[in-house]
Amino acid sequence: MSTSAVAWTDDARRQAFERWITSLAGEGLALATLRPASADASFRRYLRIDGDAGSRIVMDAPPAHEDCRPFVRVAALLRGAGLNAPQVLAWNEAEGFMLLSDLGSTTYLRALDADTAPRLYADATDALVRLQGIAARDQVPPYDRELLTRELQLFPEWYIARHHGLALSDTERAQLDRIFELLLSNNLAQPQVLVHRDYHCRNLMVCEAPGNPGILDFQDAVWGPVTYDLVSLLRDAYIEWDEEQQIDWAVRYWEKARKAGVPVATDFGEFWRDFEWMGLQRHLKVLGIFCRLYHRDGKDGYLKDLPLVWRYAHRVAMRYNAFAPLARLLERVEGTERQYGYTF
């Protein structure tokens, strides 16, 4: 048997993988069926393989680069709450291989359109409310000031300086620092819950009811701001909806969350402002991450998504007087000049 259909840069790792797969006799896995399942922005990759019980997913996560323990821990938390996360069927911790149940190959991104969106987002927000009800404060890292700040710094370092080759003036740097502090103060003051951290259309799988959606890529979960995952879902870097539609879905989520006891603000206007400010933190971070993936890691597939993320950040910056310097900076970096009135 051979795994030749899958590229291996390290022959010793290929041999270790084949030994491990062969040792899982009870699964009846056929090495000849191994094929790529999906890529990842990290050093992980996912493969699909057929066995006696149907297809399975293999995670290939070299221990020198990836720690699989958070994945296993959070998978157990999600499944314990009745959410459809992959089941860990076997784990070679020493060599960084894991066998998982297969949630299929249809992502939300592939399935979403005007007809399917109402049902798919209703299911996604139902699952999000359940996820946010998991008492996991002591089982995941905190989304604290240090981590939030480190994320924000990706914006000037990788998006402005590295990607656009621009240097901030002393005034711009001081203004950006003040804006970062405003965002951090808001983010940290929000009620705290379990945060998936990448709850969007590429990490949600279309599954049969009642297991929709399947939830992937949750290993970086933290304990943090209640609006974060909803922003990831409704202001997704890979698909755009009109703001009127975003608000409609946000209201529906907010009503479900309040009923379930999730600690959202009792006033929707306050909740929406928190949502927007949390989204600005996330989108500044994502601008930096996408540029870092290109310049540092040689992954150019995310560059096409920069314009949408820029629009998300710019719209919010234009909407609040406190962020006016950021709006101007975003325009200078992209060589645009826009005239809007500030409303808040």
Provide an overview of this structure.
This protein is of the alpha+beta class and 344 residues long. It has two domains: 11-101, Phosphorylase Kinase, domain 1; 108-334, Alpha-Beta Complex (Aminoglycoside 3'-phosphotransferase, Chain: A, domain 2). 47% of the residues lie in helices and 13% in strands. It is built from twelve helices and nine strands. It has helices spanning 11-23, 69-80, 108-111, 117-132, 145-152, 154-163, 170-189, 228-234, 243-260, 268-295, 306-319, 324-334, and strands spanning 30-38, 45-51, 54-60, 88-92, 97-101, 192-195, 204-205, 214-215, 222-225. The chain has a five-stranded antiparallel beta sheet with strand order 1-2-3-5-4, covered by helices on one side. Helix 4 (117-132) runs parallel beside helix 9 (243-260), helix 6 crosses helix 10 and helix 8 crosses helix 10. The longest helix has 28 residues, at 268-295. The radius of gyration is 21 Å and the shape is globular.
Mean pLDDT: 94
Question: Low-confidence parts lasting 5 or more residues at pLDDT below 50?
Answer: 339-344
CATH architecture of the largest domain: Alpha-Beta Complex
At the fourth CATH level, what is the homologous superfamily of the largest domain? Aminoglycoside phosphotransferase (APH), C-terminal lobe
H/E element order: HEEEHEEHHHHHEEEEHHHHH
By DSSP (H or I, 4+ residues per run), the number of helices equals: 12
Main sheet: strand order: 1-2-3-5-4
Largest sheet, strands/sense/barrel: 5 strands, antiparallel
The tally of domains stands at 2
CATH class of the largest domain: Alpha Beta
CATH topology-level name of the largest domain: Aminoglycoside 3'-phosphotransferase, Chain: A, domain 2
Which strand-content bin applies to the residues? 5-15%
